[in-house]
UniProtKB/TrEMBL annotation:
Domain Ice-binding protein C-terminal: 85-107
Record InterPro entries: Cyano_PEP (IPR026374), DUF1194 (IPR010607), Ice-binding_C (IPR013424)
Record organism: Fischerella muscicola CCMEE 5323
UniProt protein name: PEP-CTERM sorting domain-containing protein
Pfam families: DUF1194, PEP-CTERM
Length: 118
């Protein structure tokens, strides 16, 4: 899960926020932070202490809203692991086509079996 924002004005309780984060982490959710520090230069520290969590969590701060796209690009780069290649689109399409073909063949066999039993 990714959490981004430019302040803490919507937080009603830091303790409640940390408790929710801890429950999510215990459930196996990794929470990354993408704070926009334009109005609060310490927001990245707040995210480190109260928002992010999980074994592989990370934080990438954007200096301002115009820098947010760069932060997202960095985030995606960190999440793509070189030891786990992304399948090519043709591989995905081939898998979907093969699955669809299996469904069609199964329906035809079922229709044949039904016709023969009548």
């Amino acid at each position: 899960m990714d959490v981004s924002g430019d302040g803490v004005e919507n937080v009603t309780s830091d303790d409640g926020l940390r408790a929710a984060r801890d429950r999510a982490v215990q459930a196996g959710i990794i929470i990354n932070g993408l704070p926009i520090v334009t109005n609060d230069p310490d927001l990245d520290d707040y995210y480190k202490n109260n928002v992010i969590g999980g074994s592989d969590s990370f934080l990438i701060a954007a200096n301002d809203f115009s820098d947010f796209g760069n932060a997202v690009t960095q985030k995606i780069g960190r999440e793509i692991k070189p030891d786990k290649p992304v399948p090519e689109p043709i591989t995905i399409l081939g898998s979907l086509a093969a699955g669809g073909m299996g469904i069609v063949l199964r329906r035809q066999k079922k229709q044949k079996d039904t016709a023969n039993s009548v």
